[in-house]
Amino acid sequence: MELRHLRYFSAVADALHFGRAARRLHVSQPTLSHQIHQLEEEVGTPLFERARTGVRLTQAGELFRTYASRALEDVNAGLSAVGALRGLATGALRVGYPPSMRGLVVPALAAVLRRHPGLALSAQEAVVRKLERQLAAGKLDVGLGYAPARLSDLDAEAVFDSRLALVVARGHALAGAESVGMKQLTEEPFALLSRGLRVRARVDAHFAAMRFAPRVALESNAVATVLAIVRAGLAVTVLPEPRLTDAERLVVKRLSPAPRSELAALLWRKGAPRTPAAELFAAEVRARAKEDAG
After folding, report:
1. Are 180 and 166 in contact (CB under 8 A)?
2. What angle do CA 48, 53, 57 make, to 5 degrees?
3. Is the pTM of this model over 0.70?
4. For the HTH lysR-type domain, which residue ranges apply (predicted)?
5. What's the pLDDT tens digit per position in 52-96?
6. Where are the alpha helices (DSSP H) in 16-159?
7. Which residues pair with 219 in a beta bridge?
8. Which superfamily does 89-161+263-292 belong to?
9. How far apart are CA 194 and CA 197, in angstroms?
10. What does the domain layout of the chain look like in residue ranges?
């Protein structure tokens, strides 16, 4: 028995007519009849009752149809899986993320690349509103941002709570504190992200709620610049709780009272097919977010 026998049988079972089934399969009617006869010989019993007006399934044919359909579905699923794997071997992945999520995204991308070194990765770091526009325009496969998304063209899949935290240098006087209150920060110089950025709006809203006026020594639109100043011991900062790649030189401390959190999310274009590479990356992000939450 070969795969074509199952496909020919399924076509006749659907059409209940050899002529229509043959046209659908693009084979001659005698060829189709011969293949069905071969199948019936192997099964050991007739699968169709033939008449001038058409055919109908025998009891054995009805039973066999269930298993044939299941077998064809499994074969098609297998072909799709192999095609997806082939896509992972030679495909591409375009990811966009805000700078504050770099510590989560970079390890996830590295894990994807280790498993599928043939993938061509493109990682764009930008503010969330720019990433949303690019994702909606089809220039990215998946993005990271916040839920709900600003654009109606996007779906936001919440993956973890994004909490603001204080970041100080390892040798800073507050590095050993369990948590830090606003009064302890009165004399501290701050390095903050520039106004107009979403994170800065969150930081300013928390400071306003606490009736706290920070002494801002530096503003920058680059997280790397802000952290470089903090790393040098020249200022402290408040950012969405970062995963630090240089934990020996920087320390993350909880703020008291705790600022209001936001839902960090995977962003997808509504109605667009999700590539196997994008799904694999998303799975890595979910796993790492779950580890952090645990």
Report:
1. yes
2. 20
3. no
4. 1-58
5. 777 899 999 999 999 998 898 888 777 766 766 666 766 789 999
6. 18-25, 29-43, 59-90, 102-115, 128-136
7. 192
8. Periplasmic binding protein-like II (3.40.190.10)
9. 6
10. 3-70, 89-161+263-292, 164-260
